[in-house]
Amino acid sequence: MVELLPAERDIRIFQRRAQLSESSMQKHDACIVVIDKEQAEQRLTKLPYGAAWQRLYREAKARGPVSILSARLAADASPMVVALAKASSSPFERLSLATRIWKELAPVSGAKVLLATQGLDAAVSAAMLEALTAAALAATAPMPVIKSKTPKAPEPPQLTLSGDGPEIDAEQSIAIDRGNHLARWLTTLPPNVLHTASYRKALRDLAKREGWAFSFLDERALKKLNAGAFLAVTRANEHRDAGIVRLRYRAGGDGARKKLALVGKGICFDTGGINLKPHKSMYQMHEDMQGSAVAVGTLLALTRLNVPYDIDCWLAITENQIGPNAFRPQEVVRAANGTTIQVAHSDAEGRMVLADTLTIASREKPDLIIDFATLTGACVTALTERYCGAFTNRPEWHGAIEAAGRESGERVWPFPMDEDFDSDLESSIADVLQCTPDSKGDHILAARFLSKFVPAEIPWIHIDLAAGNRPGGLAHVPTDFTGFGVRYTTQLLLEQGLLTGGRMKRARRE
C-alpha cells in the first residue's frame, strides 16, 4: 500500500552568473530561457543558435500570437525552450507561464536543467527564475499511486539558475515546495488509506521526524472540555478515534517570542450526514481534510525556514458519517466556549468542528490565528476555483491580506464580515444559528459564525479554500489538488510581516 507521507526528495539548486552559450547548454540535459516579449527579435539573435530561433519565431508569429518556442537546433544540442514574457506580468501570470514552459520541455527524470533569463530587469529576472523553480519542483513532485505496477517516482531535476538579477532564496523555494507537496499528497490519498486513525499516525511520525511535540485530544478529553460542537459531528463514526491533533514547533533562543496558531479542518470523509450529499457532491469528499493538510504543510515550510516564533498547529480530525446516531437539524448543542448552536444542516459540519478547535487554540493566547478550510460552496460560486476567500476580524489588514495573495501568485479576495450579518444567524432557541436554510452568502455567514469562537482581542484570519481543487491545476501547480495556502501564508508571514510587524529576516537553518 502507498506510504502515508511523501518521501523526502533530494532537491539541488545551483545559482551562477554566466553568459548563455552553446557550451553551457551542452553541460545540461535541457535549457529554458525567458526573454522580454517586447524585444523578442532583438533578444533572440543574442541566444545560442540565434538566427535559427529568429526564423522559428517569425514562422510561429505568422500563425498567431507567440509565447513559447521549443526546439533542438543541433544534433549535439540540448532540448531548449524559449519563452517570451512581459516585464509587467503579475506573479500569477509568471507562475502560469512557468508551468506551461515546464510542460513543453518535459525533461527526463533527474535531468540537469539550465534556467536562464536574458535582457530582463534585475527584479523581473529574479522573479521569473523563482517562478520557473516553483513550477519545476511542483511538476516533478510525485503523487500517491496505487496500481498493480507502481511507476517509479520521478527524480527531482537538478536546477542551475542564471540571470541578470539577484539570487533567489532557494532555501525558501524548497521549503515551500516541501510544504505544498505534503499538502497535496495527503489530500490525494483515498479515504480507506487516510482515515482518522491513520492520519493521526502519519502526523505523529511527521512530528517525530521534524522535532515537533505531538499531542492528541481524543473524544474523552473533548467531553471534559465540553466541546459539544465537535462531538456532535463525530457521533455517527463507527470508530471512536476522532479528535484534535496539536503539533508544537518552538523556535530556539531566549526571550519572549510571538505565537502563531494554525488551524485546519480535517474531515477525512464527508457524507453530508443526515442531509446526505448526492453522488456528484460526495465523489471528492476525501478532500474535505485539505484545510488540515495545508495547515501542516505550512507548519513544515515554516519549520524548514527556522522562523523565530512559536507555532501551534491544531487539526480537527474526524469524519462526517451517516447513521442512527448522526446529529440532526434542529438539535441544539453547546460549544466549548459555552455558546449554544442551533443545528440547521448536518453538511455544515466544518464550522462545527472548527468552532471548538478555534476556542481551544484561543486559550493559548496566540498573537495570530490563521485557519484553513474547504468550508463553503458559496465561496467557489463567488470566486470560482481561481481565488480563495479571506476573512478577518482586523479589517485594516485587508490590504496586506490581498497583497500577499497578489505577490505570492496564490490569490485571495478579502470579503466583508460586518456585525450586521449576525442578524441572519439569529435563533429563537439558541445563541446562534449554525447556517441559514437558503445558503445565501454562506461563505460570509460561516465566517461570522466562526468569529464567535475567537476572542476579539486575538487577530484572526480565515481562509476558505475555494481554490483547493481546480481541474488542470492553478498557477505553478499542475495537479487538480493545488495545496493552495502554503505559499500564500509564507508570503503573508515572511514578506508582509503580519506577525512580526515587518519583513522578516530569516536565520539560516544549521
Automatic annotation (TrEMBL):
Residue ranges constituting the Cytosol aminopeptidase domain according to the UniProt record: 182-488
GO cellular component, one term: cytoplasm
Pfam families: Peptidase_M17
InterPro entries: Leucine_aapep/pepB, Peptidase_M17_C
SUPFAM superfamilies for this protein: Zn-dependent exopeptidases
Keywords, in A-Z order: Aminopeptidase, Hydrolase, Manganese, Protease
GO biological process: proteolysis
GO MF terms, alphabetically ordered: manganese ion binding; metalloaminopeptidase activity
Family: Belongs to the peptidase M17 family.
Protein name per UniProt: Peptidase M17
Species in which this protein is naturally found: Steroidobacter agaridevorans
